[in-house]
Amino acid sequence: MDWVWDGGRSSLDLINTYRDRKTGGREMLREPADLAAWLDAAGYAGARADEALLRQARDLRDAISRCVDAVLAGSAGVDPDDLEVVNAWAARRRAPVVRLAPDLSLVRVAPLDPAGGALADIAYDAVTLLGGDDRHHIRVCASPTCGLRFTDRSNAGKRQWCSMRRCGNREKVRLHRTRLKDG
């Protein structure tokens, strides 16, 4: 699958599983196996998904996305239903359980519900992103076709592209070809 990890935060990476927003949209989480593969690639090993969890993950993603859109629009008003979805998932977050091995190394114990735990972690990330100073660094890719969300951590705070090697380079090539054609 063509996953992208340019969001800089797990909650933005989840939002970015719905792609090409500016040109009608493309769902990347089409079936439970897609969600399980994305969670695994995101570092949540052992997560299994079914239709119900897929639906819940999409609902969480869409609620986070609408909250991000409200922040980007400068709106203080966020739909209370969206906040409830995000907050309810974040409330399910649990600290990772670790144990000592005989050699005194730390061993992380897998959660009973890896997929649910992953969504809770992602919701918690959204809460800390949207409720903290980083919300002022959320951007939407300037590409006319992309629409991925990312955090701008550049020194100048003027990053335009989700990824320079993808959208930034495409735009530079397009501008170069236009100059050649017009010149």
UniProtKB/TrEMBL annotation:
UniProt protein name: CGNR zinc finger domain-containing protein
Domain (Zinc finger CGNR) ranges: 138-179
Lineage: Bacteria, Bacillati, Actinomycetota, Actinomycetes, Streptosporangiales
Database matches in Pfam families: ABATE, zf-CGNR
InterPro entries per the UniProt record, alphabetical: ABATE, Znf_CGNR
